Each structure stands twice: as structure tokens, then as C-alpha cells.
UniProtKB/TrEMBL annotation:
Family matches, as InterPro entries: Aldolase_TIM, DapA-like
Keyword Hydrolase: no
Top-rank taxon, per record: Bacteria
The species this protein was found in: Rhodopirellula bahusiensis
Keywords from the named record: Lyase
GO molecular function: lyase activity
Name by which UniProt lists this protein: Dihydrodipicolinate synthase family protein
Endpoints of the signal sequence: none
């Protein structure tokens, strides 16, 4: 794993893969299977990994968190940057920082929660957690106006934000007043589109933000990296064709459940055996599996 302070220049150099987390039959983190996912991504050119929602870290125990950090530190290649996520509750986040401090990650992302929070309180939480960690944190904007632009600006002025994952889902990503307000107070070079390939062209081309995160990259890393390169090189026709390439799987994720479908898709694509998913989620049924196989065939990921 690449260690040392997080370098924001990396945000434009690789798609940020957001992998599922493989577990064995006893629900323990399966280091071998997770390493297969990491090697597959690295072989496709990916150099940035974000363990968060798709790894269901919202529900992880402190012991699992420790195992996870050990596993990803050991498994990621020397040129691969890894960002783990923690939280979402303040108390758990604070306990997890004690564990994070035993490892050499450049930053970590606070998972968002919509319940029992308000903007000023979230800002206080981010400030205190960053101070405890001694490093700036990744802020995950998943819900509209979760953090006001004023609070964001004051956090940026205090130097506690590493970068922002912007993932507020809009029917039309081109119409997004909150994203414009965020970009009025925070540098676009440190904002990453956080909803996969589908809104990435609009976010990068029209809003000028930097890179994108993706779950689907875990079944076709080279394609997703090519999409990033096409957008950056101004070949929007190619970028659009790759966006459409990912649609069959993304449509299933949108229609059923993005995390549960990705967890199985990675297994059905033959990348690694992902095993049982972390409770409070459940593995998908056979009917959904066969829909995923059809999508993967359309994408030519499997025969
Ligand atoms: N939610 C997106 C990007 C990751 O955060 C996905 O899973 O594709």
C-alpha cells in the first residue's frame, strides 16, 4: 500500500474503486479473496481503493475494522492508495480512530448518517475527529444539504478536509444547485464524483470536478479507467459509449440494491468469491443472480 500523507493529485490519476468485502462462511474477512479483488483491479490499472459503503462498513465491529485495516495494508500493491471509511456514529468513529492510528493511511472517510444529525453538529464532529486523528478527513456528501456551504467553508478554512466524495443522486445530474454551492466554497480539484460511471461525464465535464468513484469498476476495471481517460482527453463519444456499457449492471443495482448486487456481481464475474454479505444486509436470491449473469454477458465480462 502506498503510505504517507494523501496527495490530492492522485484523485485524477485513477478511478477510485469502491470494492465489496469478501467474507468466509463464518463471516470472517477473507484475506485471500479480497486480495484477488485488489489484484484484479490493479491489473486493470486502478491505483485507488476506497473501502466504504460497498464493503458495508456501516455495520462493522471494531475487531473487524482492525482486521480490515491489516488486510488492506498488507494486500494493496506499493503504488495503490487505500482510503478506509469509519463511523457513521460519532462514538464508534472516535473508537475507530484509535485503531486507524496504528496504521499508515493518508486519510480516512467518515461515513454519512442522515439520522440524528444537523449541519453544525456534523461540522463539529468532523473537526473533532480530524483533530483526534491528526489528519484531514474525506467528507462524504451523500444527502442533499447534509452540510451547509457555510459549514463546509469553515471546515476547509480549518484544514480538516482532505477531499469530498460528492454522491447526491439527482434525476438529472446536470441540475444540481447543492453541487454548485459546494464548488463555490471548496476547490473542484479536491471534489470527486461519488456515484459511479453514470453521472461522471456531467460531473467532470460540466462541473469541473476531478475524478470518480465506482463499484462497477470491480468487474471491468480497464473499461472504467478508459472512461476516466476519455473524459480527461475530451473524447466524450468514447466516454459516453463506456457509460452505456456499464448500464446493464448499474440498472440492476439501481433497481434492486446497489451494494447487494455488486457483492454478487464480483463473484459471478469470477473475480473472487465474496461469500456472505455483512448483516444487516442479505445476499440476493437466485432470480437476481441470473439477471446479473445476463448483464455480465451483455457486458462481455462472462461468456
Ligand atoms: N456508489 C458508487 C460509487 C461508490 O461509492 C458505486 O458503488 O458505484
Amino acid at each position: 500500500m502506498k503510505t504517507g500523507p494523501f496527495n490530492p493529485n492522485l484523485l485524477s490519476e485513477s478511478v477510485f474503486a469502491v470494492p465489496p468485502l469478501a467474507r468466509d462462511a463464518d463471516y470472517q474477512i477473507d484475506a485471500d479473496e479480497n486480495e484477488k479483488i485488489i489484484r484484479f483491479l490493479e491489473a486493470g490499472g486502478v491505483r485507488s481503493l476506497l473501502y466504504g459503503g460497498n464493503a458495508v462498513l456501516y455495520h462493522t465491529s471494531l475487531a473487524d475494522f482492525d482486521d480490515l485495516l491489516g488486510m488492506i495494508s498488507d494486500s494493496a500493491g506499493p503504488d495503490t492508495t487505500v482510503v478506509p471509511s469509519f463511523g457513521p456514529s460519532f462514538g464508534i468513529a472516535s473508537d475507530q480512530i484509535n485503531i486507524l492510528q496504528e496504521f499508515d493511511f493518508g486519510t480516512a472517510m467518515l461515513l454519512p448518517s442522515r439520522d440524528i444529525v444537523d449541519s453544525a453538529g456534523i461540522a463539529t464532529g468532523i473537526r473533532m475527529l480530524s483533530e483526534q486523528y491528526g489528519k484531514p478527513l474525506v467528507v462524504y456528501l451523500k444527502h442533499d444539504r447534509w452540510l451547509s456551504p457555510e459549514d463546509l467553508k469553515s471546515l476547509e478554512d480549518d484544514g480538516v478536509i482532505s477531499w469530498i466524495k460528492y454522491a447526491v443522486v439527482r434525476e438529472n445530474p446536470a441540475e444540481d444547485d447543492y453541487l454548485r454551492e459546494v464548488l463555490d466554497v471548496f476547490p473542484s480539484e479536491r471534489v470527486v464524483s461519488g456515484i459511479g460511471e453514470q453521472p461522471a461525464i456531467v460531473h467532470l465535464r460540466d462541473f469541473g470536478i476531478t475524478g470518480f468513484t465506482s463499484g462497477c469498476v470491480c468487474v471491468a476495471p480497464r473499461k472504467s479507467m478508459d472512461m476516466l481517460g476519455s473524459i480527461q482527453g475530451g473524447d466524450m463519444e468514447m466516454a459516453e459509449s463506456i457509460r452505456q456499457y456499464f448500464q446493464p449492471l448499474e440498472n440492476l443495482r439501481d433497481g434492486i440494491h446497489p451494494i447487494r448486487v455488486l457483492h454478487e456481481a464480483v463473484a459471478l464475474a469470477g473475480v473472487a468469491s465474496t461469500g456472505p454479505i455483512q448483516p444487516m444486509l442479505s445476499n440476493i436470491c437466485d432470480e437476481t443472480k441470473s439477471k446479473i449473469q445476463t448483464a455480465l454477458r451483455t457486458m462481455k465480462v462472462i461468456d
